[in-house]
Amino acid sequence: MYDMHSHIIFGVDDGAASIEESVEMVRQAASEEVEAIIATPHYIEGLYANEYEDNLARLNVIKSEVSKSGINIKLYMGNEVLITPELNGLLKAKKITTLNNSRYLLVELPFTDIPVYTEKVIYDLEIEGYKVILAHPERNQCIIDNPNILHNLIKHGALVQMNIPSIEGKYGKRVKRIAQLMLQHRMVHFIGTDSHSYKEGHAKLKSLAEMMSDYCSEMLCDLFYENTQKIIKNEIFKINEPEKIKRLFLKNFN
Predict the structure, then answer these.
(1) Domain limits at 8?
(2) For the domain that residue 189 is a member of, what is the CATH number?
(3) 160 CB contacts (<8 Å, ≥6 apart)?
(4) Measured between alpha carbons, how far is 149 from 75 in angstroms, rounded to an integer?
(5) What's the pLDDT tens digit per position in 12-28?
């Protein structure tokens, strides 16, 4: 398995607080048969604005400690960037980075709304050669209320990463149901833990993956391995055609 969304870099955001915690998170992931992690520290202007070189230096410290501990896992650099009209400028200024320097950029939506410029940002970045991956959109209130908004964003070029704790019900029953519907209607392309500490990170990852087989057994290899491997190699891949969720499924959902 690969984890393409994890806050293992210490001291840069609300993730790992120390190098010891970073190493423990990596150790836990390895025990759950995770072969590679893409570190995705937050970039939120005015809150978490550690730049690429600082993040990379810290990741290299983690790699060194992981190697000394005999943990066999590959670690790559990325970001989770809060959406803004300035994403292209931030990339050009090298304040943020794509996943393993690929064309793929992990972008977070606000939890309460979808900015009016979202589709334009997705389009403009695609013109520049980038591909937006939306981080955990199943936690966005607008998408919870109407998951077909996500179908529209996918049709406009976005890819989707779902948090595995969503299917566990960690964020509540409504998020769990939306996650199930997204899987059933081919609106998910990657799975990530979005782990922020060893207490909530990769524990039970294998059993949760088995739980997902009830909703998308034919897609598990793509979600947990193949698609993230394509990111790391900067390869283009063809996505499954998403399906709109019919009103029948949404009826009496609240």
Answers:
(1) 2-250
(2) 3.20.20.140
(3) 133, 134, 137, 150, 154, 182, 187, 188, 189, 190
(4) 33
(5) 999 999 999 999 999 99
